[in-house]
Specification:
Blueprint (H helix, E strand, L loop, with lengths): L4 H13 L9 H4 L4 H8 L4 H16 L18 H6 L2 H12 L5 H12 L8 H13 L5 H12 L8
Helix pairs in contact: 1-4, 1-8, 6-8, 7-8, 8-9
Length: about 160
Amino acid sequence: MKESILDVLLYLFEHYFATDAYAPTDPDLTAAEGPLVKELAQAGFSPAEIGKAFDWLDALARQRPAAAPAHAPGPVRVLHAAEAAKLTREAGGFLLFLEQHGILTADQRELVLDRAMALDQDEIDLDDLKWVVLMVLFDQPGSEAAYAWMETQMFLDEPEPVH
């Protein structure tokens, strides 16, 4: 069985978010006997991980702002000890890069950190963080350009260099 919340989220993202097949947080689909829950179980995910993934998505939806504010450079965010322990150095550096280059606003950075910390993993590496950023940007109104840039970083053979 696949045992990671992130695995469930990636499955949902690849099969439903990206194709707009249907909303994976629709109560009719995500009920214990709903078709989406059944499909995830058939794909090998445990009921506990499926439930945690839907809770993760619900928390993301509750924190969605009306629109992404304009990027205004501000002070550098120092990671809390728990955040620094969970994020690899490469992932933390990439998060800083995204904010400094206007891909993420300060509010979006906080949302990414919140959702990364909510994953049931001991460590969040760069690839895991990129997926969290992509899912957060997908959910943010007015972040289409940032999402498109992030998508190129994820799926192109030669992504734009990170300086």
